[in-house]
User: Which sequence fits this backbone?
C-alpha cells in the first residue's frame, strides 16, 4: 500500500474522508497517547485529550498548511495545548508515574518504533546538554503546562526574567538539536 | 532582534494567546527564523515520552465519538420527524456513508449508535429507551497473538454485536475468523471477518435475542466460511 504523506491525509480529512482520519489516527495514536500520558499522568485524561485532538482535526479547528512547518510540530502543539487546557480545568494533582514503566510496550509498527527511538535519543542528548535549571524549566513549562508565574515561584527566579529564560533554554535546545542533525547528516 | 512579537513565543507555546493573537504570532513567524526554529525544536519534545500501551478499545471509542459529533449535527432534523424516516433502523444513506471503507468497526459503531439515537427519538411511548452497551475485551489463547474487543447493545428484541480485532495473522484464502455467541456450551454463528493487510478485521451482526441469553463470546479460526458449528480452534474468547 502506498504511504500517504501527512499533508495529503490532512487534506483528505478536510474533505471529511473518514478513512483518512483513521489512517492519521493509526499513525500517531501511540506517540500522541504516550506524550499525553507523560503530560497528564492519567490514562483516562490522556484518552480524553487524544479524543479532543481528533475532534478538533475532524472539525477543522486550527488550520495546518506547510508554511507552518512540519505537520508533526503542528499536531503535537495542538495535543500539548489540549492537555494544558485539561490540566488547568481539572487542577490535576500530580501523581507518581511509576506505573508507566510496567505499561510500556513496543508493539507499534517497527518503522515507527525505530523513528521514535532515533528521535528520542537525539532529543535526550540535546536536553542533557542544557543546565539542570534549563531542563527543569522545559519540563515545567512544556510537559507540566505551568504558567510562567508558577515557574518563577518553583525555580525561584524573578518573574520578569522567566520568559526570556525559557526562551533561552528552548533556543539552546534548538541549537544543540541542529548541531546533532547536521553531524548526523555528515556521518551518513 | 528580540522585539515585542518575539516575546509572545512563550505564550504561544503555552496556549495562552487568543485566536487573534495566535494568527498575529504565526504571521510574525513567517519572517522570524528564530521563533520559527524554536517552535520546530519544541515539536521534537514529545519524542521524549516513553512508549505507553493505550487502553483496550480506545481506537473504537475515540473514532466513534469523533464521528458521532457529526451525527449530532446532521441527523436531528430527520430523526425528529417520523415521516421522513419511516424505518427506525435504516438511516437514509448519506454521502458520508458511501465513503466509508468497509471494516472500520468504529465507524460502523458510530452509525449504529446514530441509528439507536434516531430510534429513541421516534419511540415516544418509551421515552427513556435504555440502550445498554456492553463492551468486553476478548482474551487470546496462549498461541494466538491477536486481540479483539466486542461491543454489544440491545434494541427491543434484538442484539447488535460489533467485533473489532487487530494484530491478526494472515489467512489462507478459504479461512475465516468466525464469531460465536455461546449459551451453556451451545454456539451460534454471530458474524465473521478476514483480516485486511494491516491485520485488522471487524464484523457486525444483529440477531433476534436478548443479550442475557449468552454467557460467552468466542472467535475461532475456521477452515471455511458458513460453518454452522465450529470446526476450528478457539483463538479468542471472553465471558459476557
Ligand atoms: Zn520572533
Assistant:
Amino acid at each position: 500500500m502506498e504511504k500517504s504523506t501527512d499533508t495529503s491525509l490532512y487534506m483528505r480529512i478536510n474533505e471529511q474522508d473518514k478513512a483518512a482520519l483513521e489512517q492519521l489516527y493509526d499513525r500517531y495514536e501511540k506517540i500522541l497517547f504516550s506524550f499525553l500520558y507523560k503530560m497528564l499522568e492519567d490514562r483516562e485524561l490522556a484518552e480524553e485529550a487524544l479524543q479532543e485532538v481528533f475532534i478538533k482535526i475532524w472539525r477543522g479547528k486550527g488550520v495546518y498548511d506547510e508554511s507552518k512547518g512540519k505537520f508533526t510540530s503542528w499536531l503535537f502543539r495542538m495535543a500539548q495545548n489540549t492537555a494544558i487546557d485539561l490540566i488547568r480545568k481539572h487542577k490535576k494533582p500530580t501523581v507518581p508515574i511509576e506505573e508507566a514503566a510496567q505499561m510500556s510496550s513496543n508493539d507499534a509498527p517497527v518503522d515507527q518504533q525505530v523513528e521514535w527511538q532515533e528521535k528520542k535519543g537525539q532529543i535526550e542528548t540535546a536536553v542533557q546538554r542544557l543546565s539542570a535549571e534549563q531542563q527543569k524549566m522545559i519540563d515545567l513549562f512544556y510537559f507540566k503546562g505551568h504558567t510562567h508565574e508558577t515557574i518563577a515561584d518553583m525555580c525561584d527566579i524573578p518573574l520578569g526574567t522567566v520568559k526570556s529564560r525559557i526562551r533561552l533554554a528552548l533556543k539552546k535546545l534548538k541549537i544543540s538539536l541542529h548541531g546533532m542533525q547536521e553531524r548526523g547528516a555528515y556521518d551518513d | 532582534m528580540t522585539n515585542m512579537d518575539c516575546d509572545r513565543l512563550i505564550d504561544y507555546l503555552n496556549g495562552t494567546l487568543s485566536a487573534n493573537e495566535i494568527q498575529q504570532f504565526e504571521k510574525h513567524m513567517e519572517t522570524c527564523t528564530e521563533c520559527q526554529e524554536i517552535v520546530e525544536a519544541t515539536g521534537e519534545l514529545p519524542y521524549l515520552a516513553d512508549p505507553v500501551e493505550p487502553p483496550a478499545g480506545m481506537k473504537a471509542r475515540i473514532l466513534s465519538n469523533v464521528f458521532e459529533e457529526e451525527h449530532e449535527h446532521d441527523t436531528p432534523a430527520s430523526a425528529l420527524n417520523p415521516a421522513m424516516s419511516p424505518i427506525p433502523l435504516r438511516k437514509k444513506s448519506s454521502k458520508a456513508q458511501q465513503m466509508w471503507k468497509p471494516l472500520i468497526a468504529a465507524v460502523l459503531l458510530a452509525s449504529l449508535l446514530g441509528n439507536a439515537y434516531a430510534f429513541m427519538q421516534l419511540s415516544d411511548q418509551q421515552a427513556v429507551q435504555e440502550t445498554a452497551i456492553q463492551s468486553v475485551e476478548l482474551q487470546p489463547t496462549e498461541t494466538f497473538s491477536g486481540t479483539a474487543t466486542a461491543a454489544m447493545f440491545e434494541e427491543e428484541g434484538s442484539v447488535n454485536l460489533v467485533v473489532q480485532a487487530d494484530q491478526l495473522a494472515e489467512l489462507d484464502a478459504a479461512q475465516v475468523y468466525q464469531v460465536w455467541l455461546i449459551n451453556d456450551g451451545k454456539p451460534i454463528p454471530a458474524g465473521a471477518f478476514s483480516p485486511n493487510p494491516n491485520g485488522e478485521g471487524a464484523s457486525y451482526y444483529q440477531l433476534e435475542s436478548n443479550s442475557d441469553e449468552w454467557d460467552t463470546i468466542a472467535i475461532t479460526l475456521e477452515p471455511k466460511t458458513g460453518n454452522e458449528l465450529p470446526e476450528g480452534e478457539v483463538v479468542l474468547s471472553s465471558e459476557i
Observations:
- The CA atoms of residues 41 and 99 of chain A lie 10 Å apart.
- The radius of gyration of chain A is 18 Å.
- Confidence is low (pLDDT under 50) at residues 93-106 of chain A.
- Chain A touches chain B through 74 residues (CB under 8 Å).
